[in-house]
Amino acid sequence: MNLAVVGTGYVGLVSGTCFAEMGNQVVCVDNLEEKVERLNRSEIPIYEPGLKELVRKNKEAGHLCFTTDIGQAVRQSDVILIAVGTPETETGAADLSYVYAVAEEIGAELDETYKVIVNKSTVPVGTAEAVERIIQKRQPSASVDVCSVPEFLREGSAVKDTFHPDRVVIGGSSQKATEILTKLHQPLTDKLVVTDTRSSEMTKYASNAFLATKISFINEIANICDIYDADVNAVAEGMGLDHRIGPKFLNAGIGYGGSCFPKDVKALKYLAEEKEYHPNLLQAVNDVNEQQNRKMVDHLLRIFDEEVQGLTVAILGLAFKPNTDDIREAPALKIIQELADRGVHIRAFDPVATENAKQMITADITYTETAVDAINGADAAFLVTEWDECKALTSTQFKDHLKRPVVIDGRNALDVKSLKADGIIYHGIGRK
């Protein structure tokens, strides 16, 4: 098929590239000329394993191109995907201004040729209908169906997730549109859920809110384990073997971050409250997560009897999760700020997210080239992001390079027995 993808952020760039790899003709549109020029040179603005190679391959094969000309992209395409940001507003609601602006631009370029417009952006219930109204008002003679096909990509494995999805949810406004989108996605999976646009939009929010709930739940359990000297890892293993519960997203730690879970939980909460329904569970999920990143600092205060001013702490990992350079809502941001407020000196290492961190963190930090450099001479080490480079640090390296043998594991990812056997003062989250 001939596809246009409007927006070359995380979702748009990955989706467009992967659709091109499937043999479709894809043109990706962005209004930033410099970004488009970089993409046409196969320079990727985000870190995502495997993406750069796919972009270069499909550009050379003629299946993928990048442009600022939305008019040409709209006119030559059968299916147009909207994949722009929907950032959080002060109220917690999703900001739809970018989505609506793109709808206006698409409407201005349409003729009477039938087009399927697809919302890939994470949007509130009813947005597909609003987009269709905007387009029809801008171009009354337009022949369009506006649909919803939400993305369920995990940063760090987005390419894999695109080619091997658990399911594809297609919210269509007509049989013709859903048949076209079914044909487009059938090479990926036979697990296609075809429904209406409102249910499709809600499925995205509900899925992310449920996963966030599992994370906050196990973190709440970890905090109780801390009080009663139980081991949350053993608890999670015992829970996860129950097939009704399952083991995924039961890894206790310092909470979720990134561009999706925090924003989507708040947006769903706002949607409910807008209709005068008070979602107490969603509020609790958010509250637990807001507090969870403080647990590492709490452990540091406990170990040093509140006397932490002047200490040096190594921060191992800045991104909100491994295999991405995304630091949006990353726990490291709040942890670093609280440490800095307490007069702690900070040495930080991250294999790919350092440049992004420098743009967002105002505290005085020494950034290092390696994890070993970060811990060298520090009074304590914080494992904040479970990068392989950080998990690979041995008890011997911690003992030889730390000024004091203190390791606080915010992801419960290190070998506690080995560390303790070598005399390391180890604290995890909810660990015995």
Structural features, described:
This protein has 19 helices and 14 strands. With 432 residues, it is α/β, with parallel strands linked by helices. Helix 15 (354-360) links the parallel strand 10 and strand 11. Helix 5 runs parallel beside helix 6 (127-138) and helix 9 (197-228) crosses helix 11 (261-274). It is elongated, with a radius of gyration of 24 Å. It starts with a strand and ends in a 5-residue tail after the last strand.
Descriptive labels:
single chain; 432 residues; alpha/beta; 6-stranded parallel β-sheet
Question: Strands, helices and their partners?
Answer:
Layout: E1 2-6, H1 10-21, E2 25-29, H2 33-40, H3 51-60, E3 64-67, H4 70-75, E4 79-82, H5 97-109, E5 115-119, H6 127-138, E6 144-148, H7 158-163, E7 168-171, H8 175-185, E8 192-195, H9 197-228, H10 232-240, H11 261-274, H12 280-292, H13 295-303, E9 312-316, H14 331-341, E10 345-349, H15 354-360, E11 365-367, H16 371-375, E12 380-383, H17 388-391, H18 395-401, E13 406-409, H19 416-421, E14 425-427
Parallel strand pairs: 1-2, 1-4, 2-3, 4-5, 5-6, 7-8, 9-10, 9-12, 10-11, 12-13, 13-14
Helix pairs in contact: 1-3, 5-6, 9-11, 9-12, 11-12
